[in-house]
Amino acid sequence: MIPSRSKLAHALPLLLPILLAAPATALRAQAGYAVSGFGAVNYSTQSDVTLIGLGLTTFGAPFGARLSGAIGTKGVTTATDEFEGGGAPVSTPWTLDADVLLSTTAIPALRAALGGFDVAGFAGVGAQGVRGADSGGATLVTSYGGALSRTIAGALSVDAEARYRTPVTLPSSAPSSDFVRAWEYRLGFSVAVGGLGAARGGGKPVGLPGGRTPAPASPSASRVLNTADDYLGTRYVYGGTSPETGFDCSGFVQYVFRKHAVTLPRTSRQQAQVGQGLATRVPALRPGDLMMFASNGSRIDHVAIYAGNNRIIHSSSSGGGVRFDDLTTSRGRWFVDHLHAARRVLDNGQSLVSGLEAALRVVDALDPPDRAPRP
Length: 375
What we know:
This protein is an alpha+beta fold. The protein has helices spanning about 5-30, 80-85, 110-115, 195-200, 220-230, 250-260, 270, 330-335, 355-360, and strands at about 30-40, 50-60, 65-70, 90-105, 120-130, 135-155, 155-170, 180-195, 240, 245, 275, 290-295, 300-310, 310-315, 320-325, 340-345, 345, 350. It is built from nine helices and 18 strands.
């Protein structure tokens, strides 16, 4: 028989802290999340009825946490219904899960080899049951599985998942005949917001009111800044060089300038060797200039585009992706304090960098995530 509601009521106080602790902790740590909707078929309920559900995922590569729940779109007949002589499909299945995830998002080489897909493995605990007008029951479950997702537009991604569920028999209760070890399959979508939204392409970047970029100093700089603005919110990915898979700091700068026939080398240290050298003072810069930063005070490891009015636009790991930062804020002061070089590669619409010069640059280690305080 199905464990009674009273037994489940005693178990849920022990289960709920586990269900809620991981997502809540990750939310506090990452200040970003993704909301998902999905359809599922859960064969652990011994039926092929479709469930629909919602999920909340927090992410701080390579680890994440997720809380999700689903309910059947129609009733099913359970073993208990038949035993009690009901025979009618009066019980509706439901599920509740809390998972810890490990994702390939932080492994750009593997992610690129997978064509820009995100692959994740997960394990979790939860509960599942049936709910009806005259009957109902539930059991605890453990589960594990894998997920595959692909960003299709901005912060929107399509997700597929397979999960193997194992019912857990509660103390002093007989095993349930309505819940068995079996697979559940999900297909859905997710929308990223907050810090994770910036990583995936959603959320509202920090910038001027209305999302405008500051007035540029030349037509060429204006075009570069307008292009950079097009990718606000694109996720940060170590080693990333495209909006489809995400950008690191120098990959973003290289991609934006390439759109305007300016070929830059790959890393921030290499980019600090091209163009015209400038004084490392913000008042000396013009929109479109490059600003290079050194976390340890000597070795350049981050680059941004100056956008004017004490603003920079860059792909920032601490900021979750491509965003504006105000250099007059406490976070912005970190960048001012760590400014190590500045270069001008645009002048009156002409490139000061030749494709051959950039192509001949030696291979250098990729830029690491920046160490600026989080927004």
